[in-house]
Amino acid sequence: MKKAQNKKSPAIAYSIVAKDLPGHLFQVTLAVSAPAPDGQVLALPAWIPGSYMIREFARNIIQIRAESNGKDVPLTKLDKHTWQAAPVAGPLLVHYEVYAWDLSVRAAHLDQTHGFFNGTSVFLRVVGQEQGAHTVDIQRPSDPAAASWRVATALPELKAKRYGFGSYVAANYDELIDHPVEMGDFALATFKAHGVPHDIVVTGRVPNLDLARLCRDLKSICETQIAFFEPKTKRAPMERYLFLTMAVGDGYGGLEHRASTALICARADLPSTAAPKTKELPDGYLQFLGLCSHEYFHTWNVKRIKPAAFAPYDLQVENHSPLLWLFEGFTSYYDDLMLVRAGLIGEPAYFKLLGKTVASVLRGSGRNKQSVAESSFDAWTKYYRQDENAPNAIVSYYTKGSLVALALDLTIRAKTAGARTLDDVMLALWQRYGHDFYPDGGRGVTPAEVEALFDEISGLRLKSFFDKYVRGTADLPLAKLLAPVGVKLADERKSAKPSLDVNPGRDGNDCKLSAVHEGGAAHQAGLSAGDVLVAVDGLRATHANLDNLLARYAVGATVEVHAFRRDELMAFQVTLHGDRAPGITLTLDAAGGKRGAALRPSAAR
User: Where's the PDZ domain (predicted)?
Assistant: First the structure.
């Protein structure tokens, strides 16, 4: 990372310290050397890039005050996340406390075990001075519990030593908030991918953590992706990269940044030196590597190749884009595909993952009502705010977006006899919109430009495809597209298995319906999400035994179901349907997949 500073704008300086570990409080001081003469405006972001939901981070500011030359300066609150200081002649100091008790990758968390924060949660934006240099002094906590803590961040060091407390620098506010910070007694290992240092940082108790295997496998993924985007130079777009990982009892998620990613995972998903060696990757570890692959691919796709709506971000309001199917969906397509290309899994394991994705898309009727373009635009109010009716109302731009990528890849390969692929489109996007995004203050890509680029690179006219599958809600013809490349897609749903067609949630031992699929047995009988099942034909129903109870009956049989809705006991006559949950399998054809292997994205090269 270059440490270039904009000399036209004065430096903005922050200091931050974990003030109260048991109370989960960070203390932040902001120094503005040349505040606006009519009163400096300060604002905290309402959301964090990569997580498309208004988070209201300012609600975690516990107290705030300002001073100048030793005298208090009044602060006027303009809205829920914006303040204005009274005009002052000299430097302005702003002191505030931030409550940090969100154990996720998108906010801030602090206790006696570690400290973590994203800049969007703790650094007030100095309105009008965002383009100048920003420094931050990360101070060592005074609490004895933090005596041996280190610091992990991709922020360039100013006076701090690597992994140490001290001062760091960013060229501007956008860069400052794009480098999360982890503090604690973390496990640390380093590897190089095509010459670029990469750190894997793991916070949390993980007995017998196999860091050597993590480094080996992540190196394969990273080098594969670097070579994908820069096949000639194999040059990464960053000078250093960090995988910041919080290991917990149960958790999963990641958030991309320009030179790092923040991850949370179950400690059981991480490799152990004590575990027996197996040929196949354990499911949990495979899921973790897929997460790492996904977030790393974002280094190019969304952190540098951006939709026009994100260039620049407006972090105070929603930034709507109809292109998340490209930036999240295509990333979801390539994340598992890169595991194949890196040699970490074979085609059978890849097909199993792909089958789960296809099944998840086909499971909900929402796919017939909302296109992936609409899903992208409405991410703020629908995908990120899912309720009990989500399966019947929306489609995921992640999962269906990944299948759009697969279908486009297969279509382009088939119609050009392998002369062009989706890889070529991604490389063109990178070269034209991503490669020089930060150095040149680049711009994002529009939906029209995306579609035109597909036509240009493939030599095809793909408008009808976009009309049907991106702007429209038609199911993708995956079986038809996969057959010529030697892959059979089959739906082996258990139609003879009796089903209520619900998502059975758990409430203690009880079965509380988390969703009722429209058109299914429960829906037609009048059951609703939130109902707690009590009995089926007079026998107690629990989350554990519901399937066994229903298995005593044939499809078409009518059973009496008792359930509590709120505090009212209700009875329903339910005619059981066959299980409508898709059971998708993908297998190589009888010829072992040799037919069409040259055109198959996952085939060995």
Answer: 486-550
Residue 205 half-sphere exposure toward CB, CA atoms < 13 A: 2
- Report the CATH number that the domain containing residue 308 is assigned in CATH: 1.10.390.10
The CATH number for 549's domain is 2.30.42.10
Return the structure tokens found at 537: 């034909």
Q: Is residue 366 predicted with pLDDT exceeding 60?
A: yes
In whole angstroms, what is the distance from residue 375 CA to residue 473 CA? 11
Looking at the DSSP bridge assignments, the partners of residue 98 are: 26, 61
Residue 283 lies in a domain: no
What one-character DSSP code corresponds to residue 369?
A: T
Residue at 355 is within a domain: yes
State whether 190 and 174 are in the same domain: no
- The dihedral sign for the CA sequence 43, 44, 50, 54: negative
Q: How far apart are CA 354 and CA 584, in angstroms?
A: 9
Contact assessment for residue 359 and residue 583, using Cβ atoms and an 8 Å cutoff:
yes
Under 8 Å between Cβ of 108 and 102: yes
Query: Is the domain of 570 the same as that of 507?
Result: yes
Give the pLDDT score at 1: 38
Average pLDDT of 195-205?
Answer: 99
Measured distance CA(283)–CA(147) in Å, rounded? 37
Instruction: Let me know the angle formed at the C-alpha of 442 by 437 and 448, rounded to the nearest 5 degrees.
Output: 110
- Is 247 strand, coil or helix? strand
User: Which band of pLDDT confidence, cut at 50, 70 and 90, is reported for residue 590?
Assistant: confident
Residue 579 per-residue DSSP state: P
pTM above 0.70, yes or no: yes
pLDDT given for residue 593 in this prediction: 66
Q: Are 306 and 328 in contact (CB under 8 A)?
A: no
Q: Which residue has the tokens 């027996």?
A: 276
Structural tokens at position 352: 């199993």
Q: What is the mean pLDDT of residues 272-293?
A: 96
Kindly provide the b/e burial profile for residues 51-82, where b requires at least 16 CB atoms within 10 angstroms of the residue's own CB.
Answer: bbbbbebbebbeebebebeeeebebeeeeebb
Residue entry with tokens 């910070």 = 181
Backbone dihedral angles phi then psi of residue 337, each to the nearest 5 degrees: -60, -35
Determine the structural domain holding residue 128 and report its residue range. Answer: 12-183
For residue 312, whether the previous peptide bond is cis, meaning omega lies within 30 degrees of 0, is: yes
Q: Using an 8 Å Cβ cutoff, are 412 and 458 in contact?
A: yes
The answer to whether residues 87 and 73 touch, using CB atoms and an 8 Å cutoff, is no
pLDDT tens string 94-140: 999 999 999 999 999 999 999 999 999 999 999 999 999 999 999 99
Tokens 């503005």, residue located: 32
How many C-beta atoms lie closer than 10 Å to residue 225's C-beta?
Answer: 23
Task: Output the six-digit token pair for 437.
Answer: 């995004």
The pLDDT, as a whole number, for residue 573 is: 99
